[in-house]
Amino acid sequence: MLLPRIINIKFLFFMTLTELTLLLNSPGLTQTPSVTSSVSSRIQRETIVNKKMNWGLRQDSPPISFQDNFGQWQGFCTNLIDLLDKYLKQNQFLQDDVNIVRYPISIEKRFKHTRYPYQDALHLAGECGSDSIRPDENGITFSDSFFTTQTLLLIRTSQKNKFLFLKNNVQSNYSNNSKARIGVIDSSITLDRLKSYFNAFLLKIEIVKIKGGRAALFNALATKKVDAVASDEIILKRILKDLNSRTSNEFYIDPELLISYESYGLILPNDDDEWVKIVNKFFIDKKEDIQALIKQHINPPDPPGKASYTELLFILFTIIATVSGLTGVVYMYRVRPNPPSPIKPNPDPKIPTFAHGYALLIGVGESAYDPLSLPVTVKDVQALHQVLVDPNFCAYPNDSGHIRLLHDEEATRSNILEQLNWLKEQAKADPKATVVVYYSGHGWFNKSQNRYYLLPHDIDPRDFEGSSLSAEKFTNALRQIKSERLLVIVDSCHAAGMASAKKIPSNFEEIPIPKSVIDDLRQGKGRIVFTSSQGEESSWIRPEKDMSIYTYHFLEALKGEGNQPNENFVKISHLITHLSDKVPHSAMTLCKEKQTPYFSFEGEDFAVALLKGRRSDNMTRGLK
Question: Is 3.40.50.1460 the CATH number for 356-610?
Answer without folding.
Answer: yes
